[in-house]
Amino acid sequence: PDIIFDYENAKGFFGPEELVQMEEKVKQKHKMLLDRSGSGSEFLGWIDIPERYDREEFEKIKSAAQKIRKDSDVLVVIGIGGSYLGARAAIEFLQGRYPGYPEVYFAGNNLSSTQILEIKQRLEGRDFSLNVISKSGTTTEPAIAFRFFKRMIQEKYGKAEASGRIYVTTDKNKGALKELAGKEGYTTFVVPDDIGGRYSVLTAVGLLPIAAAGADVDELMAGAALGRNKFMEAGFESNDALQYAAVRNILLEKGKNIEILAGYEPCLHYVAEWWKQLFGESEGKDGKGIFPAAVDLTSDLHSMGQYIQDGQRCIFETVLDLSNTGEEILVGEEEDDLDGLNYLAEKTVDFVNRSAMKGAIKAHVDGGVPNLKVTLAARNERTLGELFYFFESACGVSGYVLGVNPFDQPGVEFYKKNMFTLLGKPEIRQI
Ligand code: PA5
Protein backbone atom coordinates (compact mmCIF):
# COMPACT_ATOMS: atom_id res chain seq x y z
CA PRO A 1 0.00 0.00 0.00
CA ASP A 2 1.06 3.59 -0.66
CA ILE A 3 -0.30 4.96 2.60
CA ILE A 4 -0.25 3.20 5.97
CA PHE A 5 -1.73 4.62 9.16
CA ASP A 6 -0.36 3.33 12.43
CA TYR A 7 -1.47 4.31 15.94
CA GLU A 8 0.51 1.76 17.95
CA ASN A 9 2.24 4.61 19.79
CA ALA A 10 -1.06 6.16 20.89
CA LYS A 11 -2.58 3.02 22.37
CA GLY A 12 -1.09 3.70 25.79
CA PHE A 13 -3.21 6.86 26.02
CA PHE A 14 -6.69 5.32 25.86
CA GLY A 15 -8.45 2.08 26.61
CA PRO A 16 -9.80 -0.41 24.04
CA GLU A 17 -13.40 0.32 25.11
CA GLU A 18 -12.95 3.96 24.13
CA LEU A 19 -11.99 2.88 20.65
CA VAL A 20 -15.02 0.58 20.43
CA GLN A 21 -17.30 3.47 21.33
CA MET A 22 -15.66 5.85 18.91
CA GLU A 23 -15.70 3.21 16.18
CA GLU A 24 -19.51 3.18 16.32
CA LYS A 25 -19.68 6.93 16.04
CA VAL A 26 -17.21 7.01 13.16
CA LYS A 27 -19.09 4.32 11.23
CA GLN A 28 -22.28 6.30 11.61
CA LYS A 29 -20.67 9.54 10.41
CA HIS A 30 -18.99 7.74 7.54
CA LYS A 31 -22.40 6.51 6.43
CA MET A 32 -23.72 10.05 6.75
CA LEU A 33 -20.97 11.25 4.42
CA LEU A 34 -21.72 8.52 1.87
CA ASP A 35 -25.50 9.08 2.09
CA ARG A 36 -24.94 12.79 1.72
CA SER A 37 -27.25 13.36 4.65
CA GLY A 38 -24.96 15.53 6.82
CA SER A 39 -24.51 19.29 6.85
CA GLY A 40 -22.59 20.79 3.93
CA SER A 41 -23.65 17.90 1.69
CA GLU A 42 -23.83 20.27 -1.29
CA PHE A 43 -19.99 20.31 -1.18
CA LEU A 44 -19.31 16.59 -1.51
CA GLY A 45 -18.22 16.62 -5.15
CA TRP A 46 -14.70 15.68 -4.03
CA ILE A 47 -15.82 12.19 -2.99
CA ASP A 48 -16.24 10.91 -6.54
CA ILE A 49 -13.85 13.22 -8.37
CA PRO A 50 -11.03 10.63 -8.73
CA GLU A 51 -13.37 8.47 -10.81
CA ARG A 52 -15.90 10.88 -12.23
CA TYR A 53 -13.77 13.82 -13.25
CA ASP A 54 -14.54 15.66 -16.46
CA ARG A 55 -12.34 13.87 -19.04
CA GLU A 56 -12.64 16.68 -21.58
CA GLU A 57 -11.53 19.32 -19.09
CA PHE A 58 -8.70 17.01 -18.03
CA GLU A 59 -7.38 16.78 -21.62
CA LYS A 60 -7.70 20.55 -21.96
CA ILE A 61 -5.60 20.94 -18.80
CA LYS A 62 -2.91 18.66 -20.21
CA SER A 63 -2.76 20.54 -23.54
CA ALA A 64 -2.56 23.89 -21.75
CA ALA A 65 0.27 22.47 -19.63
CA GLN A 66 2.05 21.38 -22.79
CA LYS A 67 1.71 24.83 -24.36
CA ILE A 68 3.05 26.43 -21.18
CA ARG A 69 5.96 24.04 -21.26
CA LYS A 70 6.76 25.04 -24.84
CA ASP A 71 6.45 28.81 -24.53
CA SER A 72 7.31 29.60 -20.90
CA ASP A 73 10.27 29.38 -18.54
CA VAL A 74 7.98 30.26 -15.65
CA LEU A 75 4.32 29.85 -14.75
CA VAL A 76 3.08 32.40 -12.23
CA VAL A 77 0.23 30.85 -10.23
CA ILE A 78 -1.98 33.47 -8.60
CA GLY A 79 -4.35 32.31 -5.85
CA ILE A 80 -4.81 32.01 -2.08
CA GLY A 81 -6.07 29.47 0.46
CA GLY A 82 -7.83 26.60 -1.23
CA SER A 83 -6.93 28.11 -4.58
CA TYR A 84 -3.22 27.89 -3.78
CA LEU A 85 -2.10 25.36 -1.20
CA GLY A 86 -2.93 22.10 -2.99
CA ALA A 87 -0.92 23.00 -6.08
CA ARG A 88 1.98 24.21 -3.98
CA ALA A 89 1.91 21.10 -1.79
CA ALA A 90 2.06 18.84 -4.84
CA ILE A 91 4.69 20.82 -6.70
CA GLU A 92 7.03 21.15 -3.72
CA PHE A 93 6.50 17.47 -2.87
CA LEU A 94 7.27 16.29 -6.41
CA GLN A 95 9.11 18.87 -8.38
CA GLY A 96 12.66 18.01 -7.51
CA ARG A 97 12.03 15.30 -10.08
CA TYR A 98 11.19 17.34 -13.20
CA PRO A 99 14.14 19.19 -14.68
CA GLY A 100 13.38 20.93 -17.96
CA TYR A 101 9.84 21.95 -16.99
CA PRO A 102 8.78 25.51 -16.23
CA GLU A 103 9.45 26.85 -12.80
CA VAL A 104 6.33 27.77 -10.85
CA TYR A 105 6.17 30.98 -8.82
CA PHE A 106 3.26 31.56 -6.45
CA ALA A 107 1.77 35.05 -6.17
CA GLY A 108 -1.42 36.56 -4.79
CA ASN A 109 -1.26 34.58 -1.55
CA ASN A 110 -0.55 37.67 0.56
CA LEU A 111 -0.56 41.47 0.22
CA SER A 112 3.19 41.95 0.25
CA SER A 113 4.44 44.54 -2.21
CA THR A 114 8.02 43.38 -1.75
CA GLN A 115 7.03 39.89 -2.85
CA ILE A 116 5.29 41.22 -5.96
CA LEU A 117 8.45 43.13 -6.84
CA GLU A 118 10.69 40.17 -6.13
CA ILE A 119 8.67 38.01 -8.51
CA LYS A 120 8.68 40.79 -11.11
CA GLN A 121 12.49 40.93 -10.91
CA ARG A 122 12.80 37.17 -11.21
CA LEU A 123 10.63 37.29 -14.35
CA GLU A 124 12.83 39.85 -16.14
CA GLY A 125 14.15 38.41 -19.38
CA ARG A 126 12.21 35.18 -19.01
CA ASP A 127 9.18 33.93 -20.90
CA PHE A 128 6.19 33.39 -18.66
CA SER A 129 2.47 32.63 -18.44
CA LEU A 130 -0.12 33.32 -15.75
CA ASN A 131 -2.66 31.01 -14.13
CA VAL A 132 -5.04 33.00 -11.97
CA ILE A 133 -7.21 30.83 -9.73
CA SER A 134 -10.21 32.09 -7.77
CA LYS A 135 -13.50 30.29 -7.33
CA SER A 136 -15.36 33.45 -6.34
CA GLY A 137 -13.36 35.57 -8.77
CA THR A 138 -13.36 38.43 -6.30
CA THR A 139 -10.76 37.61 -3.64
CA THR A 140 -8.66 40.70 -2.95
CA GLU A 141 -5.16 39.21 -2.68
CA PRO A 142 -5.13 37.36 -6.03
CA ALA A 143 -7.12 40.14 -7.73
CA ILE A 144 -4.44 42.71 -6.84
CA ALA A 145 -1.59 40.43 -7.92
CA PHE A 146 -3.41 39.61 -11.16
CA ARG A 147 -3.81 43.29 -12.03
CA PHE A 148 -0.07 43.74 -11.57
CA PHE A 149 1.12 40.71 -13.53
CA LYS A 150 -1.53 41.16 -16.23
CA ARG A 151 -0.11 44.63 -16.90
CA MET A 152 3.40 43.19 -16.96
CA ILE A 153 2.57 40.37 -19.36
CA GLN A 154 0.66 42.75 -21.67
CA GLU A 155 3.59 45.17 -21.74
CA LYS A 156 5.97 42.35 -22.57
CA TYR A 157 4.01 40.51 -25.25
CA GLY A 158 1.28 42.93 -26.39
CA LYS A 159 -2.37 42.40 -25.53
CA ALA A 160 -3.13 39.68 -28.08
CA GLU A 161 -0.23 37.36 -27.28
CA ALA A 162 -0.65 38.05 -23.56
CA SER A 163 -4.24 36.80 -23.74
CA GLY A 164 -2.95 33.46 -25.02
CA ARG A 165 -0.64 33.23 -22.01
CA ILE A 166 -3.30 33.87 -19.37
CA TYR A 167 -5.21 30.89 -17.95
CA VAL A 168 -8.16 31.52 -15.67
CA THR A 169 -9.54 28.93 -13.24
CA THR A 170 -12.85 30.07 -11.77
CA ASP A 171 -16.59 29.44 -11.47
CA LYS A 172 -18.33 28.00 -14.54
CA ASN A 173 -20.74 30.90 -14.98
CA LYS A 174 -20.27 33.79 -12.64
CA GLY A 175 -17.82 36.19 -11.00
CA ALA A 176 -15.67 39.13 -12.05
CA LEU A 177 -12.90 36.88 -13.29
CA LYS A 178 -15.25 34.85 -15.46
CA GLU A 179 -16.57 38.02 -17.04
CA LEU A 180 -13.08 39.38 -17.64
CA ALA A 181 -11.92 36.09 -19.15
CA GLY A 182 -14.87 36.07 -21.54
CA LYS A 183 -14.18 39.62 -22.64
CA GLU A 184 -10.44 39.13 -23.14
CA GLY A 185 -10.62 35.63 -24.59
CA TYR A 186 -8.53 33.91 -21.91
CA THR A 187 -8.58 30.11 -21.69
CA THR A 188 -10.75 29.16 -18.74
CA PHE A 189 -10.99 26.15 -16.46
CA VAL A 190 -13.78 25.31 -14.06
CA VAL A 191 -13.90 25.06 -10.28
CA PRO A 192 -16.90 22.74 -9.81
CA ASP A 193 -19.81 24.18 -7.78
CA ASP A 194 -19.89 21.23 -5.42
CA ILE A 195 -16.23 21.33 -4.36
CA GLY A 196 -14.95 23.83 -1.79
CA GLY A 197 -11.50 25.46 -1.96
CA ARG A 198 -9.64 23.20 0.46
CA TYR A 199 -10.99 20.09 -1.29
CA SER A 200 -10.18 21.29 -4.81
CA VAL A 201 -6.63 20.07 -5.43
CA LEU A 202 -7.80 17.31 -7.80
CA THR A 203 -9.72 19.76 -10.01
CA ALA A 204 -8.25 22.30 -12.47
CA VAL A 205 -7.36 24.40 -9.39
CA GLY A 206 -4.50 22.05 -8.60
CA LEU A 207 -4.14 20.07 -11.79
CA LEU A 208 -3.09 22.81 -14.23
CA PRO A 209 -0.15 24.11 -12.16
CA ILE A 210 0.82 20.55 -11.19
CA ALA A 211 0.77 19.36 -14.81
CA ALA A 212 2.64 22.47 -16.01
CA ALA A 213 5.37 21.72 -13.48
CA GLY A 214 5.85 18.36 -15.20
CA ALA A 215 4.05 15.97 -12.87
CA ASP A 216 2.00 13.06 -14.16
CA VAL A 217 -1.58 14.04 -13.32
CA ASP A 218 -2.94 10.70 -14.56
CA GLU A 219 -0.91 8.99 -11.85
CA LEU A 220 -2.07 11.53 -9.28
CA MET A 221 -5.71 10.78 -10.13
CA ALA A 222 -4.99 7.03 -10.14
CA GLY A 223 -3.58 7.34 -6.61
CA ALA A 224 -6.65 9.28 -5.51
CA ALA A 225 -8.91 6.63 -7.08
CA LEU A 226 -7.11 3.98 -5.03
CA GLY A 227 -7.75 6.18 -2.01
CA ARG A 228 -11.44 6.46 -2.93
CA ASN A 229 -11.63 2.68 -2.97
CA LYS A 230 -9.81 2.17 0.29
CA PHE A 231 -11.13 5.01 2.40
CA MET A 232 -14.73 5.23 1.22
CA GLU A 233 -15.54 1.58 0.58
CA ALA A 234 -13.69 -0.39 3.27
CA GLY A 235 -15.05 -1.13 6.74
CA PHE A 236 -13.48 0.30 9.90
CA GLU A 237 -11.09 -2.62 10.51
CA SER A 238 -9.26 -2.09 7.26
CA ASN A 239 -9.92 1.61 6.74
CA ASP A 240 -6.95 3.78 7.73
CA ALA A 241 -8.81 7.07 7.21
CA LEU A 242 -11.66 6.04 9.55
CA GLN A 243 -9.16 4.87 12.15
CA TYR A 244 -7.28 8.16 11.95
CA ALA A 245 -10.56 10.08 12.37
CA ALA A 246 -11.43 7.91 15.36
CA VAL A 247 -8.11 8.13 17.17
CA ARG A 248 -7.74 11.90 16.80
CA ASN A 249 -11.24 12.41 18.25
CA ILE A 250 -10.48 10.12 21.19
CA LEU A 251 -7.31 12.09 21.85
CA LEU A 252 -9.28 15.34 21.67
CA GLU A 253 -11.64 14.01 24.32
CA LYS A 254 -8.54 13.39 26.46
CA GLY A 255 -7.65 17.07 26.24
CA LYS A 256 -5.18 16.77 23.37
CA ASN A 257 -6.50 19.69 21.36
CA ILE A 258 -3.43 20.44 19.27
CA GLU A 259 -2.24 18.10 16.53
CA ILE A 260 1.25 18.61 15.20
CA LEU A 261 2.01 17.19 11.78
CA ALA A 262 5.70 16.36 11.62
CA GLY A 263 7.67 15.65 8.45
CA TYR A 264 11.31 14.61 8.22
CA GLU A 265 11.77 15.70 4.58
CA PRO A 266 11.63 19.35 3.45
CA CYS A 267 9.41 18.40 0.49
CA LEU A 268 6.64 17.73 3.03
CA HIS A 269 6.52 21.33 4.25
CA TYR A 270 3.69 22.48 1.96
CA VAL A 271 1.85 19.18 2.28
CA ALA A 272 1.60 20.15 5.95
CA GLU A 273 0.45 23.68 5.00
CA TRP A 274 -2.30 22.16 2.83
CA TRP A 275 -3.24 19.79 5.67
CA LYS A 276 -3.40 22.71 8.12
CA GLN A 277 -5.95 24.48 5.96
CA LEU A 278 -7.94 21.30 5.36
CA PHE A 279 -8.36 20.49 9.04
CA GLY A 280 -8.25 24.03 10.43
CA GLU A 281 -10.96 25.40 8.16
CA SER A 282 -13.05 22.24 8.32
CA GLU A 283 -13.05 21.71 12.08
CA GLY A 284 -12.31 25.04 13.72
CA LYS A 285 -15.79 26.43 14.27
CA ASP A 286 -18.58 26.74 16.84
CA GLY A 287 -15.91 26.92 19.55
CA LYS A 288 -14.67 23.43 18.63
CA GLY A 289 -11.82 21.72 16.82
CA ILE A 290 -8.28 20.40 17.10
CA PHE A 291 -5.75 23.14 16.30
CA PRO A 292 -3.58 21.87 13.42
CA ALA A 293 0.09 22.82 13.65
CA ALA A 294 3.14 21.56 11.79
CA VAL A 295 6.87 21.16 12.26
CA ASP A 296 9.75 20.40 9.89
CA LEU A 297 12.06 17.88 11.48
CA THR A 298 14.75 17.41 12.40
CA SER A 299 15.13 21.24 12.05
CA ASP A 300 12.43 22.03 14.58
CA LEU A 301 13.69 19.44 17.05
CA HIS A 302 16.24 22.20 17.73
CA SER A 303 13.50 24.76 18.39
CA MET A 304 9.95 23.46 18.87
CA GLY A 305 11.33 20.13 20.09
CA GLN A 306 11.61 21.57 23.58
CA TYR A 307 7.87 22.37 23.73
CA ILE A 308 6.79 19.09 22.21
CA GLN A 309 8.87 17.15 24.70
CA ASP A 310 8.17 19.18 27.77
CA GLY A 311 5.55 21.92 27.40
CA GLN A 312 1.79 21.79 28.09
CA ARG A 313 0.53 18.25 27.59
CA CYS A 314 -2.27 19.23 25.23
CA ILE A 315 -0.67 17.95 22.01
CA PHE A 316 -0.43 14.83 19.94
CA GLU A 317 1.87 14.28 17.01
CA THR A 318 1.22 12.78 13.60
CA VAL A 319 4.41 11.87 11.77
CA LEU A 320 4.47 11.84 7.98
CA ASP A 321 7.05 9.16 7.37
CA LEU A 322 8.82 9.33 4.02
CA SER A 323 12.03 7.89 5.32
CA ASN A 324 12.71 5.59 2.40
CA THR A 325 13.84 8.21 -0.08
CA GLY A 326 15.96 5.73 -2.01
CA GLU A 327 18.92 8.14 -1.92
CA GLU A 328 22.19 6.42 -1.02
CA ILE A 329 24.29 9.24 0.44
CA LEU A 330 26.92 7.76 2.72
CA VAL A 331 28.31 9.72 5.65
CA GLY A 332 31.82 8.56 4.60
CA GLU A 333 35.10 7.96 6.37
CA GLU A 334 37.83 10.51 7.26
CA GLU A 335 41.30 9.52 8.35
CA ASP A 336 41.63 11.81 11.37
CA ASP A 337 37.93 11.56 12.40
CA LEU A 338 38.09 14.98 14.07
CA ASP A 339 34.30 15.34 14.00
CA GLY A 340 33.90 11.88 15.51
CA LEU A 341 31.56 10.68 12.77
CA ASN A 342 33.51 7.64 11.59
CA TYR A 343 31.17 5.36 13.53
CA LEU A 344 28.60 6.30 10.88
CA ALA A 345 30.97 6.07 7.89
CA GLU A 346 29.15 3.21 6.19
CA LYS A 347 25.67 4.49 7.04
CA THR A 348 23.43 6.57 4.78
CA VAL A 349 22.01 9.98 5.69
CA ASP A 350 18.59 8.30 5.36
CA PHE A 351 19.57 5.83 8.05
CA VAL A 352 20.55 8.66 10.37
CA ASN A 353 17.27 10.50 9.59
CA ARG A 354 15.25 7.37 10.31
CA SER A 355 17.08 6.85 13.59
CA ALA A 356 16.37 10.46 14.56
CA MET A 357 12.69 9.89 13.75
CA LYS A 358 12.49 6.69 15.79
CA GLY A 359 14.35 8.33 18.67
CA ALA A 360 12.10 11.41 18.66
CA ILE A 361 8.91 9.36 18.48
CA LYS A 362 9.96 7.34 21.51
CA ALA A 363 11.04 10.43 23.43
CA HIS A 364 7.76 12.23 22.66
CA VAL A 365 5.61 9.24 23.61
CA ASP A 366 7.60 8.86 26.84
CA GLY A 367 7.01 12.58 27.44
CA GLY A 368 3.21 12.20 27.19
CA VAL A 369 2.67 12.99 23.50
CA PRO A 370 0.64 10.29 21.73
CA ASN A 371 2.10 9.51 18.35
CA LEU A 372 0.31 8.63 15.13
CA LYS A 373 2.15 7.77 11.95
CA VAL A 374 1.25 7.99 8.28
CA THR A 375 3.82 6.17 6.19
CA LEU A 376 4.22 7.20 2.54
CA ALA A 377 5.56 4.50 0.24
CA ALA A 378 7.36 6.87 -2.12
CA ARG A 379 7.79 10.43 -3.28
CA ASN A 380 5.62 10.12 -6.34
CA GLU A 381 2.27 11.18 -7.80
CA ARG A 382 0.43 7.99 -6.96
CA THR A 383 1.31 8.11 -3.28
CA LEU A 384 0.47 11.80 -3.12
CA GLY A 385 -2.93 11.29 -4.78
CA GLU A 386 -3.77 8.65 -2.21
CA LEU A 387 -2.47 10.83 0.62
CA PHE A 388 -4.67 13.76 -0.46
CA TYR A 389 -7.69 11.49 -0.47
CA PHE A 390 -6.73 9.88 2.84
CA PHE A 391 -6.73 13.24 4.63
CA GLU A 392 -9.81 14.58 2.81
CA SER A 393 -11.96 11.61 3.72
CA ALA A 394 -10.64 11.45 7.31
CA CYS A 395 -11.36 15.17 7.66
CA GLY A 396 -14.96 14.88 6.47
CA VAL A 397 -15.70 12.06 8.89
CA SER A 398 -13.76 13.66 11.74
CA GLY A 399 -15.66 16.95 11.34
CA TYR A 400 -18.99 15.13 11.55
CA VAL A 401 -17.82 13.25 14.67
CA LEU A 402 -16.94 16.61 16.18
CA GLY A 403 -20.41 17.89 15.36
CA VAL A 404 -19.58 20.67 12.91
CA ASN A 405 -20.22 21.30 9.22
CA PRO A 406 -16.78 20.42 7.82
CA PHE A 407 -17.53 22.02 4.46
CA ASP A 408 -18.22 25.67 5.26
CA GLN A 409 -15.94 28.50 6.47
CA PRO A 410 -18.08 31.36 7.75
CA GLY A 411 -15.27 32.59 10.00
CA VAL A 412 -13.03 33.71 7.15
CA GLU A 413 -15.41 36.56 6.22
CA PHE A 414 -14.94 38.61 9.40
CA TYR A 415 -11.53 40.11 8.64
CA LYS A 416 -12.67 40.93 5.11
CA LYS A 417 -15.58 43.06 6.38
CA ASN A 418 -13.25 45.11 8.57
CA MET A 419 -10.64 45.42 5.83
CA PHE A 420 -13.23 46.56 3.26
CA THR A 421 -14.57 49.18 5.67
CA LEU A 422 -11.04 50.48 6.22
CA LEU A 423 -10.40 50.49 2.47
CA GLY A 424 -13.70 52.25 1.70
CA LYS A 425 -14.85 49.55 -0.70
CA PRO A 426 -18.00 50.52 -2.64
CA GLU A 427 -21.05 48.22 -2.75
CA ILE A 428 -20.31 44.99 -4.58
CA ARG A 429 -21.56 44.94 -8.15
CA GLN A 430 -23.67 41.80 -8.75
CA ILE A 431 -22.74 39.96 -11.90
O1 PA5 B 1 -11.28 27.28 1.49
C1 PA5 B 1 -11.67 28.37 1.15
O2 PA5 B 1 -12.85 28.55 0.81
C2 PA5 B 1 -10.73 29.56 1.10
O3 PA5 B 1 -9.48 29.26 1.56
C3 PA5 B 1 -10.65 29.97 -0.36
O4 PA5 B 1 -10.11 28.94 -1.11
C4 PA5 B 1 -9.81 31.24 -0.50
O5 PA5 B 1 -10.35 32.26 0.27
C5 PA5 B 1 -9.76 31.67 -1.96
O6 PA5 B 1 -11.04 31.87 -2.46
P1 PA5 B 1 -11.30 32.05 -4.01
O7 PA5 B 1 -10.94 30.80 -4.70
O8 PA5 B 1 -12.75 32.38 -4.12
O9 PA5 B 1 -10.43 33.21 -4.46
From TrEMBL:
One of its GO terms (molecular function) is glucose-6-phosphate isomerase activity. Its EC number is 5.3.1.9. Its main location: cytoplasm. Pfam families: PGI (PF00342). Gene3D superfamilies: Glucose-6-phosphate isomerase like protein, domain 1 (3.40.50.10490). One of its GO terms (biological process) is glycolytic process. The keyword ATP-binding does not apply. It catalyses: alpha-D-glucose 6-phosphate = beta-D-fructose 6-phosphate. It is found in: Cytoplasm. Pathway: Carbohydrate degradation; glycolysis; D-glyceraldehyde 3-phosphate and glycerone phosphate from D-glucose: step 2/4; Carbohydrate biosynthesis; gluconeogenesis. Belongs to the GPI family. Catalyzes the reversible isomerization of glucose-6-phosphate to fructose-6-phosphate. NCBIfam families: PRK14097.1. This is Glucose-6-phosphate isomerase. It comes from Parasporobacterium paucivorans DSM 15970. The lineage of its organism: Bacteria, Bacillati, Bacillota, Clostridia, Lachnospirales.
